[in-house]
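Hi there,

I know you've been waiting on this one. I reran it after we fixed the sequence typo, so this is the corrected version. Both the input and the resulting structure follow.
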Amino acid sequence: MRERAVSRLLAIYGAFVFFCVPGGFLAGLHVSRTFGDSYGYLTVTELAGFAGMTAGGLLMGLWGGFSQKERTLRTGLAAFGALSVLMGFAARFDAYLALMALYGVALTTVQTAVSTLLQERSAPAMQGRVFGLMSAVYSICMPLGMAVFGLLADRIPLWCLMTASGAALLIQAGAEVFVQLRRRG
């Protein structure tokens, strides 16, 4: 944790996992409340997310992201946040599914960028520990996000939570741009 770049990436990843809960992990709840409580809607929603993540994996495998990996991370965070906001406002199910597929691409972009940056910035002897910490961050932030946003979803419409969490991710992406510009200046 003394490695500032590594601890910063883990914090970014933790915030990302926390804020992706409303749009990603509570998607089934949102679909059932907004579009209808049927197995067909829920199945197609999961398939759209899966297709997006698969496409994102193929894209990142073939393209590899921008040469500056921080730019890939910022772009993925911004896309993920914007898509979460748009998903909150989607009034038609087909539009929601298209956004969900793109959301899967953005998710894979962020995950790949964080993993690559952690690998590049960690000493080879510490990489196992660092990736263990990455798994621990996920294992803490996802259930924490479920506890927070799941309980809030009983009081606040889920589309509001998706929009707010998407806005938080957009702010996070903007803060990363600001940090990068500050480093250059």
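Quick highlight: The mean pLDDT is 95.

Best,
R. S.
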